[in-house]
Amino acid sequence: MAPALLITHGMIGKDDELKDRIQARKHAMQAKLSELKADSRSEAAETRDKIKRSLDELEDSVKEGWDDMSESVRAKLNRWLDRNP
User: Total domain count for the chain?
Assistant: First the structure.
C-alpha cells in the first residue's frame, strides 16, 4: 500500500511544483507589468503588450483549472515557462 501512496504523492507533487513555478512567474510578470504602466516610452509599451499576450496565453492554458491536467497542458505550461524566463 505504501508504494501506491508514494506514486500518487509523486504525481501530485509534480503538478504542485508546476503550479508553484507558473504562479511565481505570473506574479513576477504582473509586477513588471505594473512597473511598466508608469513608463511612456514606446519600448515600454511594446514590453507591456508582450507581457499581456503571454499572460493571456497562460490564462487560456489553465482555463480548465489545475485539477486533472492532461499531459498536453503540462507540456504547454512548461513551454510557456521556457519562453518567459
Answer: 1
Q: Are 80 and 54 in contact (CB under 8 A)?
A: yes
Domain that holds residue 57: 2-83
- What are the distances in angstroms from CA 49 to CA 21, 37, 64, 65? 22, 11, 24, 25
Quick one: which of 28, 23, 27, 45 has its CA closest to 36? Answer: 45
The structure's pTM equals: 0.76
Residues 40-50 have pLDDT tens digits of 899 999 999 99
Neighbour tally for 77: CB within 10 Å: 20
